[in-house]
Amino acid sequence: NAGVTQTPKFRVLKTGQSMTLLCAQDMNHEYMYWYRQDPGMGLRLIHYSVGEGTTAKGEVPDGYNVSRLKKQNFLLGLESAAPSQTSVYFCASSPGGANLYEQYFGPGTRLTVT
Amino acid sequence: KNEVEQSPQNLTAQEGEFITINCSYSVGISALHWLQQHPGGGIVSLFMLSSGKKKHGRLIATINIQEKHSSLHITASHPRDSAVYICAPSQDMRFGAGTRLTVKP
Hints:
The structure holds two protein chains of two kinds.
Chain A: E1 4-7, E2 10-13, E3 19-25, E4 31-37, E5 44-49, E6 56-57, E7 65-67, E8 73-78, E9 87-94, E10 104-105, E11 109-113
Parallel strand pairs in A: 2-11
Antiparallel strand pairs in A: 1-3, 3-8, 4-5, 4-9, 5-6, 7-8, 9-10, 9-11
Chain B: E1 4-7, E2 10-14, E3 19-25, E4 32-37, E5 43-49, E6 52-56, E7 59-64, E8 69-74, E9 83-88, E10 99-104
Parallel strand pairs in B: 2-10
Antiparallel strand pairs in B: 1-3, 3-8, 4-5, 4-9, 6-7, 7-8, 9-10
């Protein structure tokens, strides 16, 4: 099993450009999450999904959109990138149910917006 | 809104020392997650606990639900334990800012 994978691993964007980050998991998990991690701050939840076709806002959703068309994939989109979105982005998944809070993380995507 | 505080923010120890990292939170929870973030950035799960104590090798995690406090202990610390340790009282998916541990040989 690959677990949780993220593509790309690195990306540099110019202000105003758009991009999509892909998260894929092969553990048949119901729940998927997108976080951002900034220096000196903890992981902050951007959006999450409790199942195929569902999405919900987290703590810092502004400037991002997500989609979960297939259970194994969770996409994070930036429609018009801003320098404030320079960060490391982590995707995670969890089985839900009794193990709701046990999350498995992807390797991260380092995004720089100039 | 769950406020999460970890202490200390940074910790340097000599190899072999006993390490304690603390996590306090403000809202009642049903479970708490301890994570380890390697110097390369990868994040792995260490413990998920809802009461009492759990042990895995040299790592021990304890939680006091009434006092809204959890601790992570590392016995006989080793340089390979150097990492950022993150607690997540995950009722609302909030994480502590992490404790950066450096263990010197």
